[in-house]
Amino acid sequence: MLPHLKNHSYETQLFRERAKFAASFTIFLIILLALRVFTLQIIEHDTYQTLSDNNRLHTRSTPPTRGNIYDRNGVLLATNKTEFRLEIISVKGVDTVDTIERLKPIIQFSDDDVTRFFKERNRSRRIISVPLRFSLTHKEVARFEVNRHKFPGVSIQHRQIRHYPLYTLTSHLIGYVGRIDEKELKNINTLTYASTEHIGKTGVELYYEDILHGTPGVRQVETNVVGTTIRLMEETPPTSGDDIFITIDSSLQAIADKAMGDKRGALVALNPKNGEILALLSKPSFNANLFVNGISSKQYNELINSKYRPLFNRFLHGQYPPGSTVKPLMALAGLEGRQRKPEHSTECRGWYQLKGYKHKYRDWKRRGHGKTDLDKAIIESCDVYFYDLAHDMGIDYIEKYLAQFGFGKKTGVDISNENRGVLPSRNWKEINLEQPWYPGETLSVGIGQGFFTTTPLQLASSIATLANYGEGFRPQLLYAIQGAGGSNPQRNPPTSLTPIPIKDRANWDSVHEAMRKVVHSRRGTARKLGRKSKYTIAGKTGTAQVYTVKQGDRYDEESLPEHLKDHALFVAFAPKNDPEIAIAVIIENGGHGGSVAAPIAKQVMDRYLLKDQI
Fold first, then answer.
1. Which percentage of the chain shows pLDDT scores above 70?
2. Which of 8, 130, 267, 565 is exposed most, by the fewest CB atoms within 10 A?
């Protein structure tokens, strides 16, 4: 067979054609690539540069420093301190659940911490660093840093956190901040609160949130692929919130707290000349610091389930019958309305009976007080005198006159969620109970019982107005505002209320003098208070009934469980002729105002009026 002969001419031609095709295709690709590069580098340079910067450069908000809160003397009541916290940022390819599991041997955290972490992370659409554990100790920080390389996206961050250095002493008054929740997130300005985790929840912290909060700053930073900041590009610093001074004297607050001890109740002390609140106490109290980063379920359940209700703000929300503490105002109403003269007497046999009715309204003194005029009625707290007076005045006049002292409406104090109490009337009963008003109910109101309730703050405010001859002021807590940088504090002026018309100043003098004798006469229900007192006190004791004694039965305090015993009350102002302080004390189930509530008030007044002598 003949061997196959190659056609060199044909093969050369084929090779050249293929080479031309390959060269042409290569040139085409080069031109195409050059066009693409030209498009990217020249035509679309700005667009892709922006996209690149967006992946590399990030604008982050910087939280402002919250303003401090001081008492009137500059004692720190609320401030900020640095804490270390463990934070996690989502990293592509890293299982967060696994990361948390592997962290357990290094950093302790609870199930509540984990639940809150995922809730907060899922709430945000942005890639953010979310805290898993707050308030790390230095040992915990050191332990994590040794193992840091094992946990991409996990870091220790230091943050400013709210701190209340007086702990339980001012919790109901100052309130607290807490982490912003879903409801608040819908209502706040997201720009104003960008990067802010906390907001005022109660008390002064809530009421003056706009002043304390400040304005966030802005930082432009360059980050790596896992979101860690490499360098700061540009920064606009935040503006700190303003500091505020409140009218409270923390040393007076501490005296009140010590005097009340373990008793349940409230104390309010005011300056009757301007409405400034000097002491404002509700007991028992709680540690406000527990709420800042979110209280644990165990701690919250202990507070909420306590029979002593430490979370209940008694001076603001507590509604108590004023009892006999309202008798001076009833007497004044009778004098000013000309239903009584100071010398008018009522025979007290230990009970009072309306004509045509069998029911007997008992006096606290079963044998009666005998012949009783206005002076004696206040000094000995005669119920029968005030039953008779209330019957003669009628509920319509009583409601109209006492409303001038602020009963049945909010005082306007600068703390949120104040209760208004109940100043009963025909209209009130018709609206709330859909029932007519009965004559016997007027008698109960005459001694501060029945439907009549007041907050401790209202009671103190009414006594301050009485002390000041009808010139009332809105109770206020804001003393001054100091801008960031320590500028001169701007004082908050007092707010005058509509003066109560005075028909005869002598009527007010008569009531004041009778209140003086409550403390400084041998028959007064608070006579022990006046012994060796270095100043003159005008006061009135009160016992507010909790348990209704059946007709014919005796009130036996010893046989009653604690929660059914009478409340003990005391109101006063001093010095009598030039009052500098007005005070109201309510002790829940305390019994007698003269022996329980009055000594507490005396300790506070001593501290305020004799501070240079004790």
1. 88
2. 8
